[in-house]
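Limitations

Structures in this collection are predictions, not experimental determinations, and the ligand pose is part of the prediction. Treat each record accordingly. The example that follows, with magnesium ion as the small molecule, is included so readers can see exactly what is and is not provided: the inputs are given verbatim, and the output is the predicted complex.
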Amino acid sequence: MQIIIKTDWCKSCGICAAFCPTGALSVEPGEKARATDVEACTGCGLCERLCPDLAIEIIKVEVSI
Amino acid sequence: MKDIRFIQGNEACTLGALYAGMDFFAGYPITPSSEIAEMLSGELPPRGHTFIQMEDEIASLCAVIGGSLTGRKAMTATSGPGFSLMQEALGYAVMAEIPCVIVNVMRGGPSTGLPTQVSQGDVNQARWGIHGDHAIIALTAGSHQALFENTVRAFNLAETFRTPVILLYDELIAHMRERLEIPSEGEIPLVERLMTSVPRDVDYRPYLAREDGRLPMSDFGGAHRYNVTGLYHDMWGFPSTDPSVVRGLLSHLVEKIEGRENELTFTREYETEDAETLLISYGSAARTARQTVYEARDKGIRMGLLELETLWPFPERKVRDAVAGVNETVVVEMNLGQVFEQVRRVARSPERVFLANRIDGRFITPPDIRKVLRIIAGKGVWA
Amino acid sequence: MNVQNYVRKRFLPHLWCPGCGHGTVLNALLRSVDELGLSKEDIVMVTGIGCSARMAGYVDFHTMHTLHGRALAFATGIKMSRPELNLIVPMGDGDALAIGGNHFIHASRRNLDITAIIMNNHIYGMTGGQFSPLSGPGTTATTAPRGSIDPAFDAMDLAKAAGATYAARTTTFHVRELQKMLTGAISHKGFSVVEVFSQCPTYYGRKNNTGDAPEMLKAFRDETAKIGSKTLDENPELIPRGVFVDRDAVDYGEAYAELCRNAAKEAPRC
Ligand SMILES: Cc1ncc(C[n+]2csc(CCOP(=O)(O)OP(=O)(O)O)c2C)c(N)n1
Ligand code: SF4
Ligand code: SF4
Ligand code: SF4
Ligand SMILES: [Mg+2]
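Predicted complex:
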């Protein structure tokens, strides 16, 4: 999974982190959103849909074993 | 063969609009303008053109603006109370430079006033009904032939200058029947919309004026995607509060009209060459004024008439020149002196400008004018 | 898909406050447009005035930012003139149902093929937090310091009674549902309305002690329930979400086209 956060658009509202089901994201007060646990991300896409600032994009990376 | 009709003024206006190529009408019924909507509800559908009766006059002008932006020659028709409701959308049309024609058939006001009687009380409203600095074009007519021609002219000016044009005439003209000779096709030239030559996918700037001040358009929803707003905006149509953009746009909006008196002001003159007394009038009142001039001439009195067909921008130069050569000027109108004030403003000797008016819903007559002339002459009121 | 393809990037980040739900409505709308495979050239967005109305500046469609409350009237003119275009009209709650209420009911009645979105933050955001006809009794607002006594409209009841042929309600928490409803509304033939509860943390939130944007979204989650759900049956005080109306009726544009075709068969008149 690749989590792209467009930090110049993010307004630190905290919505993405509050509702990420796996705790992959965090937003510290006054700071931009960060993907703190990329491994945990399941690619559910909730954060990119909830974000009011179009600041997140989730890219599903195909991993071939 | 000539096409000659004996019809109402509202029909003459409607036929003029159809002649001009009007293909979009939205309106809300109100006396004394309703005949226009009634007639168009029959005439537009068979041509495949749009007629829609909206929920009020606000919606009517908004719909007209939408129709015009998408490439139509669009019009609405109303009277005082409806014209009051249209002011906000009219301001939008001025700001966003949307060509369209608004017919206001004047009745007595304020408020519901005198729905079925004659008045010319909306002259100043046409000029200043909108909030904020701006300029506007308003035409009028005193006969059905002139009304037909000026309706066509209203569409032509709207397209030429990308602006709303108000066609202001009074209830008497609207409902009176008289002869109209319909010009043959091509007899009155029509101005079609100036379209941009910028091809698809090339940066089109809807609010970038050419050197001659005209702004080529692109049908909204068509080849170019742009923004339209009532806010001050840049040449792409996006909001801006940059002082130079604001100043530039306001100057452009005013200059494109106020700076063109010669192209925009239409007048007619009767017996003015050697006149010592000048009447200035417009609309149905000008008919009375003309009659008064002819009766005076029969008695050897040197009287003439300057009839205004453009009310705004006010024909300053023509009026100033006409007034300069006479002993006294009498403005004949059916209100408390709205054009009279303008004539006094531009006259070099405003103390020689007088008003002959009626404000009681009755049509002004030659005796009403002669009474004023006798007072001016110091002869008292009674003949 | 990348929603950023549909926005005018030079105007972003947008001017909405941090956590404002209006951005989430925009987000869902762009996904819906993408899902439907619509081209930017086929969409006209008309907005009124308000925070909601700013959306017109951000999307790369044909856009028109008009007058407070009048967006549907402008859109009616455009649609009557160019029936092939998709008309999307996002409005604020005040925009749509206070000053624009008359246009809203008549657009619903006519059933012209336009998609209206009511971005309902239960407040006048742009002018600083005055109550709207959707605020409801008890809402604190800058013009209701002691709590509003004004009863609220139910936008769905209103749309239904006025004749809208598609009417749905959801919130900015229910983002997948929101996208689905927008897609349903845009593909519906006739007048469609989607009411979206949208959080205004800046005015509604502060005045009514709702907490921050995530807290407001939790309230949308906890205070609403799907039509037909067990939760709603058991908790009738919850606000229903879902599709309230979805029916076929003659589209005004088609009725007008037919009127024209029939009229053209008559002898010429004037
Ligand atoms: C005719 C008119 N009246 C009042 C206003 C001032 N005004 C601008 S936006 C607005 C209310 C906005 O509230 P809403 O429609 O709910 O949109 P929001 O900002 O909450 O998204 C008002 C009253 C105006 N612009 N025009
Ligand atoms: S939801 Fe969007 S704007 Fe808000 S913190 Fe997350 S990335 Fe930033
Ligand atoms: S896609 Fe889902 S799991 Fe991954 S960060 Fe976003 S919300 Fe969390
Ligand atoms: S005032 Fe409210 S509605 Fe307006 S942008 Fe801010 S949060 Fe959004
Ligand atoms: Mg609101």
